[in-house]
Amino acid sequence: MKPNLSPEDIGCDTVLECLYSLSNIDKRVFSFLSDGGEYRAKEVAEKMERDQSTAYRSLERLVDCGMVYKEKHNIRNGGYYYLYSARPLDLIKKEAINCLERWYESMRESIEKIDGFTD
Length: 119
What we know:
The protein is mainly alpha-helical. It has helices at 12-20, 24-34, 41-48, 52-64, 89-112; strands spanning 68-74, 80-86. A hairpin with a 5-residue loop joins strand 1 (68-74) and strand 2 (80-86).
Protein backbone atom coordinates (compact mmCIF):
# COMPACT_ATOMS: atom_id res chain seq x y z
CA MET A 1 0.00 0.00 0.00
CA LYS A 2 1.28 3.46 -0.92
CA PRO A 3 1.03 6.57 1.29
CA ASN A 4 -2.30 8.39 0.93
CA LEU A 5 -0.86 11.79 0.05
CA SER A 6 0.71 12.05 -3.39
CA PRO A 7 2.81 15.04 -4.54
CA GLU A 8 -0.03 16.07 -6.86
CA ASP A 9 -2.32 16.47 -3.82
CA ILE A 10 -0.01 18.91 -2.05
CA GLY A 11 -0.91 22.55 -2.48
CA CYS A 12 -0.53 25.71 -0.42
CA ASP A 13 -3.66 24.91 1.62
CA THR A 14 -2.42 21.41 2.42
CA VAL A 15 0.99 22.66 3.53
CA LEU A 16 -0.47 25.32 5.82
CA GLU A 17 -2.96 22.83 7.19
CA CYS A 18 -0.25 20.27 7.97
CA LEU A 19 2.48 22.57 9.30
CA TYR A 20 0.26 24.81 11.40
CA SER A 21 -2.83 22.64 12.06
CA LEU A 22 -5.06 25.31 10.52
CA SER A 23 -8.79 24.94 10.03
CA ASN A 24 -10.61 26.20 6.96
CA ILE A 25 -11.71 29.35 8.82
CA ASP A 26 -8.10 29.95 9.96
CA LYS A 27 -6.95 29.80 6.34
CA ARG A 28 -9.73 32.17 5.26
CA VAL A 29 -8.84 34.64 8.03
CA PHE A 30 -5.16 34.51 7.12
CA SER A 31 -5.96 35.02 3.45
CA PHE A 32 -8.04 38.08 4.36
CA LEU A 33 -5.27 39.52 6.55
CA SER A 34 -2.65 38.81 3.87
CA ASP A 35 -4.18 41.49 1.68
CA GLY A 36 -2.73 44.04 4.11
CA GLY A 37 -4.05 46.25 6.84
CA GLU A 38 -4.79 45.91 10.53
CA TYR A 39 -8.15 44.71 11.78
CA ARG A 40 -10.03 44.20 15.01
CA ALA A 41 -11.59 40.80 15.68
CA LYS A 42 -15.02 42.35 15.08
CA GLU A 43 -14.03 43.49 11.58
CA VAL A 44 -12.62 40.06 10.74
CA ALA A 45 -15.83 38.44 12.01
CA GLU A 46 -17.95 40.68 9.79
CA LYS A 47 -15.80 39.92 6.74
CA MET A 48 -15.90 36.16 7.42
CA GLU A 49 -19.62 36.30 8.27
CA ARG A 50 -18.91 34.52 11.55
CA ASP A 51 -19.48 35.19 15.21
CA GLN A 52 -16.89 37.48 16.79
CA SER A 53 -15.79 34.73 19.21
CA THR A 54 -15.09 32.41 16.26
CA ALA A 55 -12.98 35.08 14.56
CA TYR A 56 -11.16 35.79 17.82
CA ARG A 57 -10.27 32.10 18.36
CA SER A 58 -9.01 31.85 14.79
CA LEU A 59 -6.94 35.01 15.14
CA GLU A 60 -5.43 33.73 18.38
CA ARG A 61 -4.50 30.41 16.74
CA LEU A 62 -2.80 32.35 13.94
CA VAL A 63 -0.95 34.49 16.49
CA ASP A 64 0.12 31.37 18.41
CA CYS A 65 1.59 29.74 15.32
CA GLY A 66 3.42 32.93 14.34
CA MET A 67 1.50 33.84 11.20
CA VAL A 68 -0.20 36.96 12.55
CA TYR A 69 0.86 39.96 14.64
CA LYS A 70 -1.30 41.13 17.55
CA GLU A 71 -0.86 44.70 18.73
CA LYS A 72 -2.51 46.20 21.81
CA HIS A 73 -3.87 49.75 21.57
CA ASN A 74 -4.97 51.74 24.62
CA ILE A 75 -8.09 53.83 24.58
CA ARG A 76 -7.63 57.32 26.02
CA ASN A 77 -10.43 57.11 28.63
CA GLY A 78 -9.59 53.56 29.64
CA GLY A 79 -9.69 50.15 28.08
CA TYR A 80 -7.88 48.72 25.10
CA TYR A 81 -8.35 46.79 21.88
CA TYR A 82 -6.19 44.61 19.66
CA LEU A 83 -5.33 44.98 16.00
CA TYR A 84 -4.30 41.93 14.00
CA SER A 85 -2.20 41.88 10.84
CA ALA A 86 -0.48 39.19 8.78
CA ARG A 87 3.25 38.68 9.15
CA PRO A 88 5.21 39.12 5.92
CA LEU A 89 4.86 36.06 3.70
CA ASP A 90 8.60 35.81 3.10
CA LEU A 91 9.19 35.29 6.85
CA ILE A 92 6.41 32.71 7.07
CA LYS A 93 7.81 30.87 4.03
CA LYS A 94 11.32 30.82 5.50
CA GLU A 95 10.06 29.44 8.83
CA ALA A 96 7.87 26.87 7.05
CA ILE A 97 10.84 25.65 4.99
CA ASN A 98 12.97 25.30 8.13
CA CYS A 99 10.15 23.40 9.83
CA LEU A 100 9.75 21.14 6.82
CA GLU A 101 13.48 20.39 6.68
CA ARG A 102 13.53 19.44 10.39
CA TRP A 103 10.42 17.29 9.91
CA TYR A 104 11.93 15.58 6.85
CA GLU A 105 15.14 14.72 8.69
CA SER A 106 13.21 13.40 11.69
CA MET A 107 10.95 11.27 9.47
CA ARG A 108 13.92 9.96 7.50
CA GLU A 109 15.70 8.92 10.69
CA SER A 110 12.57 7.23 12.02
CA ILE A 111 12.02 5.32 8.76
CA GLU A 112 15.63 4.14 8.73
CA LYS A 113 15.12 2.67 12.24
CA ILE A 114 12.17 0.52 11.17
CA ASP A 115 13.06 -3.14 11.69
CA GLY A 116 9.58 -4.55 11.80
CA PHE A 117 6.41 -4.05 13.71
CA THR A 118 6.19 -5.18 17.31
CA ASP A 119 3.51 -4.69 19.92
